[in-house]
Amino acid sequence: MRADSSKQEGECSSSTGLSDGSVPSGPADAASTIPFANEEWRTVPGYETAYEVSSRGRIRTVPRMVKPGNRNGWMSRSGFVKPQLVEQQGGGQPILTTVFVLDGLRFTTTVARVVYTAFHHPVHDSERVLHRDGNSLNCEASNLYTLRKGL
């Protein structure tokens, strides 16, 4: 069963803070397209020309020209990617997933795996990405670690 997360998509804001002049600093501000304090952006391995991921677990597209599916011409594409909240079978915690599209090919993965790969090292097939605080929705780079499957 899929349900949309509370994160919002939209254009990257040119503002550097909230309306009261403060800088966003925590998960409560995650729905915003306003930059967080101390947020670092890196390219997504394998999708360097199309996507970037932040140390706070947000994903955005790199400004580029794309050809829409059934339409003529090209269009500019940029903005934040809205992750999907996926409920686990058997009642486990929900996880955030995302879909990358490049050259007409779609690839679905977890946000945690993307963040971990960009900020730590590639995740081997025998490893799982886990959350230090136990909150599967907190995909900040500092909150993630790997553990071999079966342990």
Structure description:
With 151 residues, the protein is mostly beta strands. The protein has a single domain (2-148), classed as Homing Intron 3 (I-Ppo) Encoded Endonuclease, Chain A, CATH 3.90.75. Helix content is 6%, strand content 34%. The chain has one helix at 111-119, and strands at 2-4, 41-43, 51-54, 59-66, 75-80, 84-86, 95-102, 105-110, 127-131, 144-148. It has a 4-stranded antiparallel beta sheet. Strands 2-3-4-5 form a 4-stranded antiparallel beta sheet. The chain has a two-stranded antiparallel sheet with strand order 9-10. The longest helix has 9 residues, at 111-119. 19% of the residues are buried.
Helices and strands in order, then pairings?
Elements: E1 2-4, E2 41-43, E3 51-54, E4 59-66, E5 75-80, E6 84-86, E7 95-102, E8 105-110, H1 111-119, E9 127-131, E10 144-148
Antiparallel strand pairs: 1-6, 2-3, 3-4, 4-5, 6-7, 7-8, 9-10
Enter the CATH topology name: Homing Intron 3 (I-Ppo) Encoded Endonuclease, Chain A
| Overall CATH architecture | Alpha-Beta Complex
CA gyration radius, whole angstroms: 16 Å
Helix content: under 10%
Largest sheet: 4 strands, antiparallel
